[in-house]
Amino acid sequence: MLTPSLSTVDLVVILAYLVLVIFIGLRMARRTHSGEDLFLAGRRLGWVPIGFSLFASNISSTTLIGLSGAAYTWGIAVSNYEWMAAFVLVFFAIFFIPYYLNARITTVPEFLERRFDRRSRLYFSALTLFSNVIVDTAGTLFAGAIVLQVFYPDLDLFTACLGLALLAGLYTAAGGLATVVYTDVLQAVVLLVGSCMVAYLSFGQLDFSWANVVDATPADRLSLMLPLDDPNLPWLGTLVGVPILGFYFWCTNQFIVQRVLGARSIAHARWGVLFAGFLKLPVLYIMVLPGVMAGVFLPELENGDAVFPALVTTLLPTGLVGLVMAGLLAAIMSSIDSTLNSASALLTMDFLRPERRGWSATRVVWTGRGFIVLFMFLAALISPMVASFPGLFHYLQSALAYLVPPVAVVFMLGLFWRRASATGALATLLGGHLVSALLFIFSLTDLLSLHFTIVAGLLPLISSVIFVIASLLSDPTRDQVHHFTFSTDTTKRQPELARWQDYRIYSLILVTLATVLVIVHW
């Protein structure tokens, strides 16, 4: 069994890097004086940090570990989640961002209250809290523990998870979203450079010959579209389920959308989202394919989720190993602090409603910081349970497949269907999740053998039927419909920008590149 190790130089680099990240967090704490500062970075974010932060918080945590591990185990089809993000982000930039930013919301569930009523807001906020802590934060802590166990096999999961949670939670409580975003920029650059080097050196292990990769790898591991009966990701699940999961993650998940809500303008929000889309496209080549190639020259790994840290320590020189591993650990912490910050925002702003209670800005900040610490310990307790799932990526996506389809329907029909009512939205959330729970129970008892991505494509159809029937039997609120449903007048009211600043041009380029990538690797 391969047992990577870190040299003294690597450990010094890691320590210096983590000290720098913590310094940034403490520095940002000086600018954190209100709830808006803590949760939205004072709405001062530009498109570059938004784009890097979106990319880093997604790819550098559970996704990087899980992507490489899944690719090592069953091939490049796992990258379907990555290229699909390009289409979802374009859709988000064009249609949802103007309504989110014009509403001046602090949390995504707040938008549901503006469009429907408070019942939908609280229901979705509670669901997002559960998802952020139980799925996102716990999964990310587990990913970090896997990295640490590569070097220290005797380290138990809970100790590793608690240590990461403490480190990330404390500097997040100090600096808030600004800390998360600006450390993400540094981490994204380090990870992109490190991943490119790992990909180059992995390819070098096979003599820089694509023919050698093809000859040494089963054909299905180099195809994006797998057979309908494939247990990992059937082609039908890619087409009907992955877009639903992507829509929830990129367009409605507080953990991600919080950065967009902190943008200084609609234009910067759109540019940042599209920038993140461009950063997602090379993931197939620099993070997924190295996992596949590792199956050729590192076949002895028992745990696929350990493949990326194993590649780093096997291929990179001393010093650079420490830098990339520091970036990976710090980025994992960045994802942890992102989810902790968003969970705190949800509980503070959606449930306690400090503006109604007349709380001072200082009290809001310290209440939010207290919840960050609380969720930090809760996630650390839960994260070792992830080990009981067949893989980290499977844990994340299968959990979301049953949770998010009714939410996606409520947001989609709420924005585009003027007849959608508050009663319809609540009925869809309750009824859709009841059906989800039944299907989940059936899947555990082998009464349902559908892949979770196909379930994620089936549930929106059922939820849509519930929404339409319930909405037709009730009345929408006219003022809410007027302000929070899509209209071409909204796009006409946006300020005119130069042609090179036109988000529609970049959207077209992004969609074209993503389409070409899919055709080439179909």
Task: Considering the chains and any ligands shown, give keywords for the structure.
mainly alpha; 522 residues; globular; single chain
Provide an overview of this structure.
This protein has 522 residues and is mainly alpha-helical. It has a single domain (8-387), classed as Sodium/glucose cotransporter. It has 24 helices and no strands. The chain has helices at residues 8-29, 35-40, 47-74, 80-102, 108-115, 118-151, 157-204, 210-216, 235-240, 242-252, 254-261, 266-280, 283-297, 307-315, 320-352, 354-357, 361-382, 392-403, 405-416, 422-444, 452-472, 478-484, 488-492, 503-521. Helix 20 runs antiparallel to helix 21. The longest helix is centred in the middle third of the chain and has 48 residues, at 157-204. The protein is globular and about 65 Å long. The protein starts with 7 loop residues before the first helix and ends with a helix. The mean pLDDT is 79.
